[in-house]
Amino acid sequence: MSKKKYSKELFLSMYEDMVRIRKFEIKLTECFMKGMLAGNIHTCVGQEATIVGTCYALEKRDFITATHRGHGHCIAKGAKTDKMMAELFGKVTGYCRGKGGSMHVADLDLGILGANGIVGAGIPIATGSGLTSKIKGTDEVTLSFFGDAASNQGTFHESINMASAWKLPVVYLCENNQYGVSVNIKSVTNTESIAVRAKAYNIPGVTCDGNDVLAVFETVQEAVAHARDKKGPSIVECVTYRMRGHYEGDPASYRSKEVTEEWAKKDPIKAFGEKLLEMDVTQEELDAIDAAMDAEIEAAMQFALDSPYPDVSEVTLDVYASDNERSVAR
Amino acid sequence: MSKLSMSKAIREGLYEEMLRDENVIVVGEDMGTMGNPFGITLGFLDEFGPNRVIETPISESSFTGMSVGAAMRGIRPVVELMYVDFIGVAMDPIMNQAAKMRYMTGGQVNVPMVLRAPIGAGRRNAGQHSQCLEPLFTHIPGLKVVAPSTPADAKGLIKAAVRDDDPVIFLEHKLLYAIKDEMPEGEYVIPLGKANVVREGKDVTIITWSRQVLFAKEAAEELAKEGIDVEVIDLRTLVPLDWEAIKASVSKTHNVVVVQEGYKRSGFAGEISSQIMEELFDELDSPVYRVAGLNVVPPFSPPLEDAFFPNPQDIIAGVKKVLEV
């Protein structure tokens, strides 16, 4: 860490968001096991430092695109856990009136341009948001979250090439959790890192410890400042590990237990908690955050359960902004 | 009245919209100095500057996806695919992003973009530069689809497409670009979803769009010499479909031929045919008949290409089959 001074309140807030995301995800796994949740659930357990460190480097007016593993991205960008949970339960009180579900949470007011069910599809959308800021002459930065596997989509190359050519204010944030479903990135990519590809686009590229929230925070801050100063895009790669399967129900038997156990020792929340205790934070303060998050997530789930489903008449609503009825009818 | 070609008419419509609304931008290959291969954006770079005339690398997937992101932020991009055939590398941002964004976000966000794409055979462009592909777009909920047949319509419809808050696919037949026709005076917009009865008749209805409207009119004039009175409907917009216009005409003539240039199998003509069978069966004196392109790869060799898509003689044969004359 640099010598920059950060407040205790900031650190506790970051810790709280990491715990909030973890408990949100664990609650989902429990609900899924009980058969309460429909569809696919991709959790980001183990990746909280990358997510929180990144979003804390952004301003409220900045934009993100999230991924199919996007609950954490949205929460860290300001989404409320009750409306998130309601969305995942398909309820009308959710962020998207229950029509998007786990992979499509969006809130434009919070700068969340949507999670995305297509790997790599958020990268050009973020690039277009960056283009918009350039056209309008405003100073928002757009950050695109994507995984290591998405870095092998054509959209990665095409988008970063354009963003570099036109100096767009975009940060390309690769959450390298090392697996695209079952495939290890090393078995399909022959470079030492993802960030090294930045050289090909003549932009900055840096790799950092994605389980160290402060390292991520500082690294992304630099990339954001670079973008905001109209110096163009950069690639930040955060090396982390997906502690659970690709989705709930995936036993992840394609990975070695030993490696997963090694990463468990590097749990980002545990590590940050220990660091905070070395500063002037007490165990009581951490315990209080833990308890408060338990209560919040429980209440969020209750809110979701108590909320109604959308009326069936909504099935044909909002396909089109104009002439909807006629355009849906035939 | 002045005359303009369709390419000039589209250029004029886009130019007026860019003057009217600074959020309108054009995006695509060769949009700058060259002004696109058909001259659609000639002079735009000088007039509107590089912030609004986005000349892209050959990266159809990402410049289309980028336009979706810009549209979500309030920009109104008019994206050009140099040929509709290139949609193969740009389908995800259209099919999974632009088309679905409003619905998936519960109505939070619109994607007010236009995808312009030249279509059609007859220029000896062979297999990968000659398709129409309307059904790839009409099949996907969330997209509107427009395919004009005249310069006047093209200008009015492109203006409506730019102003529309939904993603609009705007299909321009390459062999219509150079054909000149009279233009209305003053500013005008033609609403999406409004068909045009381009020839009134009482014996049979031909429903079609784009270049085949010209062939249908030609066929109708020939048939008139034989005493067959043909009504020709130019749909102009495929989604939303002007069902009222179809219904009124079918209820009058009781015989229908649907004509399209593109492949017959799973084409939009089949869709129209089904809807008429389902809802207007009692009005019909004969089964609805389709005249359409062959289910083959667009060939290069001129005699083969000429045999690939319908011409006025094929339409005449179709009408005679329906009327059993």
Task: Write structural notes for this entry.
The complex is a heterodimer of chains A (330) and B (325). By secondary structure, chain A is an alpha/beta fold. Chain A contains 13 helices and 7 strands. Chain A has a domain at 28-67 and 108-266: Rossmann fold (3-Layer(aba) Sandwich). Chain A has helices spanning 8-33, 48-55, 71-76, 81-88, 122-136, 154-165, 185-188, 198-201, 213-228, 257-265, 268-278, 283-306, 324-329; strands at 63-65, 142-147, 170-176, 179-180, 183-184, 205-209, 234-239. In chain A, the strands form 2 sheets. A 5-stranded parallel β-sheet of chain A has the order 1-2-3-7-6, sandwiched between helices. Chain A has a two-stranded antiparallel sheet with strand order 4-5. With 325 residues, chain B is an alpha/beta fold. Chain B folds into 2 domains: 2-183, Thiamin diphosphate (ThDP)-binding fold, Pyr/PP domains (Rossmann fold, 3-Layer(aba) Sandwich), CATH 3.40.50; 196-323, Rossmann fold (3-Layer(aba) Sandwich), CATH 3.40.50.920. Chain B is built from 12 helices and 14 strands. Chain B has a 7-stranded mixed β-sheet with strand order 3-2-4-5-7-6-12, with helices on both faces. In chain B, α1 runs parallel beside α7, α3 runs parallel beside α4 and α8 packs across α12. The mean pLDDT of chain B is 97.
